[in-house]
Amino acid sequence: MLVSALRESSPRVVRKRKIENIRREYERQKTELGMVVSPTLWRSPKFYLGIIVMMAIVGGVVFRATDSAVTSNVEPPHLVAMRHVDVLAEALGRYRFHVGAYPTPELGLAALAYRPADVPKWNGPYINQLRADPWGTPFFYEPPSDPGSLPTLICFGADKLRGTADDITPDPARFDPGTEWTNGWLSAEDRLPGVRVLRSLPGS
What is this structure's pTM? Predict the structure, then answer.
């Protein structure tokens, strides 16, 4: 009877030993691969909370780096003003090419953006919109006193005063845009389909 009992228990012992061997092999391979993470960790809420916190930290770092890069690429106000007066000077030259004279004091720089009354040869707009300078002051414009001279166009700068060291004026050559730009030039109605071009100055 004792021999029979040993024979009956033998398969169970063999299975147990096989399972134990498999477990030991698993532990050995896990150690070799550095897999020290417990399988139950993937079901832990703390694990996912830690991932969310890490993502928030990384996102904050990336946002700060991007914001810093954008801030460092902001164009200085005086360079913006220099570019604007050059654009206005070129627009004045194009206005004169079409109309035959620079805008009158009454029309001012607004004539570059809006169609003035009683100026039939106007073929603008020559600028998209008339803005103030980077410090919030309108650009100063004065037509020439005689046909052979250039208009006066000034940005008063940060101190907003005329005749000081920070005044900004355009390159005089900008008032003469040449004739190359006339190739392919279209009237305001053709260049801005679907957009109503004002035929008089605002408030007139």
Answer: 0.59
Give buried/exposed letters for 97-125 (b at 16+ CB in 10 A, else e): bebeebbeeebbbbbbbbbbeebeebbbb
Collapse the DSSP code of 168 into the 3-class scheme (helix H, G, I; strand E, B; otherwise coil) and give the result: strand
**Measured between alpha carbons, how far is 44 from 106 in angstroms, rounded to an integer?**
76
Q: Which residue has the tokens 């030991």?
A: 24
Element of type H or E holding 26 = helix 2-33
Q: E-strand spans in the chain?
A: 140-142, 152-154
What is the average per-residue pLDDT within 84-94?
95
**How does pLDDT run across 143-184, given as a tens digit for each residue?**
998 878 999 999 999 999 999 999 999 999 999 999 888 888
